[in-house]
């Protein structure tokens, strides 16, 4: 099979309920899910030829994407489907089917796991691969013309030659033992030197996932394709991936585990191996404030950790409890101070517009952001995403008037506006507040001076200056 994996353009991406500027300076990250599929195919099945197009990092318009696809010969097209990218996914499907009506289109990713029946009905979609895709996608390719064999592979949805919808049953979650045998993402199949991040000191950067599954129960989050069971790569395997990337000239990493620091001994051993091998790397991680200790922070710094992203979410214990976050603010302050003492940057995630939240609660969140004094904040309006406990609660209580997301999955509409929690605030009020929160944090004179003295390169200065100017000139919606 000639396999084409496409990361579509992002011209129609749903941005939640946030001002577009919040996402405009984030840079481009590799399409890691597609590259994991490609890596598995290249190592385990040499009968397949694999091409990857990342339309975002290549900055392709749809007409340019069409021209590019017309130069290729392909039998199967794979695309990762996330709910907020579905408009671009659909437009990409239309292009590939126009060029090659006989090709088979396979979708995987979070959206197909939440709305499989709605997704298989999209014109041009031939197969859904549910759950974790590496092995399943390879099995699908090997048996794509044999419906009887396909029925034996768990986690597939498709239509048989008579048009009847077939679901082969829930997918199995990959064990930790299997995860440690999977090949690394095939990063070399993209223009990997073009990936960058506002938070990185050097380019290129890459993303990396060293574990799967989140055991926590935050009410605003749901990742059904990865499950709740935490499964991790061994320290040795993580370091081997660092080394493979260094050979490509990549020294900067954004580790995109939901929570990198769940297993303290594992993290410490990763750090010890990096230090022992004297690897020239820098990396950022995501963590919870209740999963770190002093020894881990010291080792992370020595190993090259430049920054830690903490999900704080709210400035009152009342709203933290509503979000089922399971942390407290005094502990957050302690960990932020320790992180800064070890000279690592901090990024704090906050959201506004949660159930029962009042104006006073939101104002307290802004105060807590200044009190914790991270290097960066990422402030968003809470969007009740599909499949999350908070979305189900909103439907049950009538706060969310109808099942917006399911209707969107059935009818992909460019006029769709993601829902917000409509209990206490209008969307416009929340948009005004979020801009106020950004300006209140980022335009403090002490903050601006601190950031200027922390910059280490001209490229870093240009990226951060551009983002800073856009924040300063943010305008409230009319």
Describe the structure.
- With 478 residues, the chain is of the alpha/beta class.
- 41% of the residues lie in helices and 15% in strands.
- The chain contains 20 helices and 15 strands.
- Strands 2-1-3-4-5-6-7 form a seven-stranded mixed beta sheet, with helices on both faces. It has a six-stranded parallel beta sheet with strand order 8-11-12-13-14-15.
- Strand 12, helix 12 and strand 13 form a beta-alpha-beta unit.
- The model has no long low-confidence stretch (mean pLDDT 92).
Q: How are strands sequenced across the largest beta sheet?
A: 2-1-3-4-5-6-7
Main sheet summary = 7 strands, mixed
Tertiary shape:
globular
Number-wise, the strands total 15
Mean pLDDT: 92
- Find the structural class using helix and strand composition: alpha/beta
Number of helices: 20
What is Rg? 22 Å
In terms of DSSP E residues, the strand content is 15-25%
User: Termini separation (Å)?
Assistant: 52 Å
Helix content: 40-55%
Residue windows where pLDDT falls under 50 for at least 5 positions: none
């Amino acid at each position: 099979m000639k396999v084409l994996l496409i990361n579509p353009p992002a011209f129609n991406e749903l941005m939640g309920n946030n001002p577009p500027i919040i996402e405009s300076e984030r840079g481009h990250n590799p399409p890691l899910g597609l590259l994991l599929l490609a890596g598995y195919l290249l190592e385990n099945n040499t009968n397949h030829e694999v091409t990857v197009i990342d339309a975002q990092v290549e900055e392709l318009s749809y007409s340019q994407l069409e021209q590019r696809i017309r130069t290729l010969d392909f039998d199967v097209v794979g695309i990762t489907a996330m709910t907020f990218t579905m408009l671009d996914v659909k437009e990409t499907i239309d292009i590939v089917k126009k060029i090659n009506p006989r090709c088979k289109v396979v979708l995987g990713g979070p959206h197909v796991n939440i709305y499989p029946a709605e997704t298989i009905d999209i014109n041009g979609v031939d197969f859904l691969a549910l759950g974790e895709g590496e092995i399943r996608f390879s099995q699908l390719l090997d048996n794509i013309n044999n419906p009887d064999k396909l029925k034996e592979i768990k986690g597939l949805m498709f239509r048989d030659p008579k048009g009847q919808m077939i679901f082969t049953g829930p997918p199995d979650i990959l064990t930790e033992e299997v995860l440690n045998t999977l090949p690394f993402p095939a990063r070399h199949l993209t223009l990997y030197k073009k990936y960058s991040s506002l938070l990185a000191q050097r380019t290129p950067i890459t993303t990396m996932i060293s574990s799967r599954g989140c055991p926590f129960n935050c009410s605003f989050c749901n990742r059904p394709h990865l499950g709740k069971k935490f499964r991790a790569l061994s320290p040795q395997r993580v370091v081997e991936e660092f080394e493979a990337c260094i050979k490509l000239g990549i020294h900067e990493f954004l580790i995109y585990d939901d929570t990198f620091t769940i297993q303290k001994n594992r993290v410490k051993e990763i750090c010890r191996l990096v230090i022992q091998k004297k690897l020239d790397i820098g990396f950022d991680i995501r963590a919870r404030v209740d999963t770190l200790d002093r020894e881990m922070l010291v080792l992370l710094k020595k190993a090259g950790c430049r920054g830690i992203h903490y999900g704080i979410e709210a400035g009152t214990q009342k709203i933290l409890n509503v979000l089922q976050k399971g942390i407290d603010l005094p502990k957050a302050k302690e960990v932020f101070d320790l992180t800064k003492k070890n000279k690592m940057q901090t990024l704090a995630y906050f959201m506004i517009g949660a159930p029962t939240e009042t104006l006073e609660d939101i104002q307290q969140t802004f105060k807590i952001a200044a009190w914790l004094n991270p290097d960066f904040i990422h402030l968003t309006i809470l969007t009740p995403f599909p499949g999350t406990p908070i979305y189900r609660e909103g439907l049950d209580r009538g706060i969310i008037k109808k099942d917006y997301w399911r209707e969107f999955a059935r009818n992909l509409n460019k006029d769709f506006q993601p829902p917000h929690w409509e209990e206490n605030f209008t969307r416009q009020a929340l948009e005004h507040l979020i801009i106020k929160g950004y300006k209140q944090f980022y335009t403090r004179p002490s903050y601006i001076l601190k950031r200027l003295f922390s910059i280490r390169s001209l490229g870093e200065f240009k990226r951060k200056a551009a983002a800073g100017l856009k924040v300063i000139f943010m305008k409230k919606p009319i």
